[in-house]
Amino acid sequence: ALTSYTNRTVRVRFQAWSYNGSAPDEDLVLDKITIEDAPPPVLLNPIDEVSVSTLRLTWTPTGLVNFREYRIYRSESSSVTEASILVASFTNQAVMAFVDTGLMARKKYYYRIFLYNNSDTSTGGNQASAMTGGVTVPWSDNFETNAVGWTFTGSWTNWPGGGRNGSMGLLDSPGDYANSADSWAQFAVNLSGTTWPVLRFWDRHALADNDWGRLEISSDAGANWRPVYGVSSTRTNWAEQSIDLSPWRNQSQVWFRFHLFTDGSVPNDGWSVDDVGLAEHVPVAVGYPFYENFENGLTNWLHAGWITDTNAPYGGGYAVHDTVPLRIAPDTTLWLTLAGELNLTNAVDPQLTFWVRGYLWHYSGLRFQVSTDGGLTWAELAAVNLDTGFNADWTRKQVALTSYTNQTVRVRFQTWSYNGSAPDEDIFLDNIGIGEFAPSAPSLHSPRDQGIVGVLRPTLIVNNAIDYQGDPVSYRFEVYADAGLSNLVAQVPVMAAGWNTTAWQVDVNLLDHAQYWWRCLASSGPNISPWMPATSFYINHTNRAPFAVVIPSGWLTLSNTDGVLTWYPTTDPDPGDYVLAYQVQVDDDPDFGSPVIDQGDVQLALPEELTSWLSVSLPLKEFVGADHLQAGHRYYWRVRAVDSYYTLSEWPAGEHWFQFGATVTDPLRLTALSSPDAAGRMTLEWSVTGSRVYVEFKPSLEGLNWQTIAGPLSAHSFTITNSATMPTGFLRLRQE
């Protein structure tokens, strides 16, 4: 630009020269020299239509008469010049839009359009910038389609048969990787507004010695990378990894890359990745106090690199192990993060205790860390730090968490390598406890609450309490004859703990057919747990049959299988025992030599407390064999009860029968029953029927003897003139 010479008359020249005593071979040609006003610039509008890998540019058209072309330049810094990357040029003056493709996700790009006239004079317009989009949360990719949002370098690609179960997968190379490789597969996301984002994926690998794979995260456009997972050596089975992304949850530009770097020696198959997903984590329910022995796997943890291992655990069948290969990748972090938050609001003197074994060589370490701000920042508890040089069998570590009472915290373990080393390190953890000094209360194992035992000296078993400091625990059992726990009948003050459960056989004979209550507590030295909730059991050393069933009527008329059989449910005399089912028999022979119906599994949904007026009515059609009943026949029927020991009650006394198939018209129905008036009169009304009616009374439902107090009646009402002679009881109507 000659802008500084405006409003002046000037002379101009070109100069070629040599200097420093040299006589160089130089040759310059000049042509098309123009000095003129620069063309007016075009206006680049704000960038729109942003995607993961594209940005759309639009601009105002130019009216320049001697228009030659538009040139669009792009830069990754805030200064765009004609020395920047030329991404497009247009000689059509009417073009006003361009979509830049193949861009990196969540990366900011700067653009400027230069307008050229036919004299090759150019003018740069205004500058515009925008950041590409990232994958959205939640997001997943199984690589079965084009890898949208990914940036690949080297030979990274999605490949048929490279994933789990023979599906598509992400590979660093279709075959063996190249020597001296430094390549990656990268995607990006905006984590603003997330609460507990977690990255999950499956992987396996086969890497030669001194070749490494790392998952790295950057929140400053790639200026710095944090390795949060690494692989080395060979693991042929697919394993799922889960990584807590809470430290980046407020960041709008978060890059992830699977990074392979190799030496110049022997290559191998490489690193395979599948089913990558990023979503809000659903925290597991973590109560306080907390205990983990890894017998149920890693369901309580987010883990990358860590696995459960049966190799010499401290207790039980499993411990957790940080690296299967001998060496950890260089400058790599492996987190084992509790997958739920710990609420220490009610904690008094919380302690962390865990057991650790293994070794740490050549710039490696183990840390326990706590976050009080939802995982953004983490503080380490120096009292349990382990550093280079640690080499020991199972060692107990403990540290107070008292400074975190009345707070909700997240916790994690971390192993890592540093100073560019890839050390041979190996860490096992087991029996992680966070709780008070006192052990937890034991819990009921057997007998079940309200259960029945068949011996006079039963064995009482509890699931062992948890001592969060790993101290030895003993148990105290007490047995009472009352629910108020005031009548102590047996006890043992100190019982050594068993493996997982602790059992004590009552050392005195308890009474048969009686109910007892018992409880247990644990102690470790002076620290005593709460009592477990009191529970009860019944002694049923000699089983007794249920009481006989009562059938209220001697005979019935049932026109079809919709007719019902009615009886009063019974009970069992033994405390804790109950009626399991009923057996119903129907036969045309009063001796029941060959029953038409013989069903022994009739189960009823009844309230726990039976009342004297409760009866059971079941239609004939619900019984197997009812379709063989013949009209015009008299059938005898009976019912008996079966208890939980399959002991049968006696059959009911007397004969009970029904006439089957008779036509019954105008069934009798009670329609009104008035309360006694001042004179003691009480009126019953019933539906009109073609048959005569009897009114019957009985003071209780026990027995079969009903007293006829009126009838036969052809009317459809009857007034009892002195109800005082029947102060309480039951009335019924009987139809001829």
Question: Which terms would index this structure?
Answer:
736 residues, 51 strands, 6-stranded antiparallel sheet, mainly beta, single chain, elongated
Architecture overview:
- With 736 residues, the protein is mainly β.
- The chain has no helices and 51 strands.
- The strands form twelve sheets. Strands 7, 9, 10, 12, 15 and 17 form a six-stranded antiparallel β-sheet that branches. Strands 18, 20, 21, 24, 27 and 29 form a six-stranded antiparallel β-sheet that branches. Strands 19, 22, 23, 25, 26 and 28 form a six-stranded antiparallel β-sheet that branches.
- The protein starts with 54 loop residues before the first strand and ends with a strand.
Task: Give a short overview.
By secondary structure, this protein is mainly β. The strands form twelve sheets. Strands 7, 9, 10, 12, 15 and 17 form a six-stranded antiparallel sheet that branches.
Indicate the topology:
Elements: E1 55-58, E2 67-75, E3 85-90, E4 97-100, E5 108-117, E6 122-131, E7 139-141, E8 151-152, E9 157-159, E10 169-171, E11 182-189, E12 197-206, E13 212-218, E14 226-231, E15 234-244, E16 254-261, E17 270-280, E18 290-292, E19 301-303, E20 307-309, E21 319-321, E22 333-338, E23 342-343, E24 351-359, E25 364-371, E26 379-380, E27 391-400, E28 408-417, E29 426-435, E30 443-446, E31 451-453, E32 459-463, E33 474-480, E34 488-496, E35 501-505, E36 515-524, E37 527-528, E38 535-539, E39 555-558, E40 564-567, E41 579-587, E42 597-602, E43 616-619, E44 634-643, E45 657-660, E46 670-673, E47 682-686, E48 693-698, E49 707-713, E50 717-720, E51 730-735
Parallel strand pairs: 31-38, 39-45
Antiparallel strand pairs: 1-4, 2-3, 2-5, 5-6, 7-17, 8-11, 9-10, 10-17, 11-16, 12-15, 12-17, 13-14, 13-16, 18-29, 19-22, 20-21, 21-29, 22-28, 23-28, 24-27, 24-29, 25-26, 25-28, 30-32, 32-35, 33-34, 33-36, 36-37, 36-38, 40-43, 41-42, 41-44, 44-45, 46-47, 47-50, 48-49, 48-51
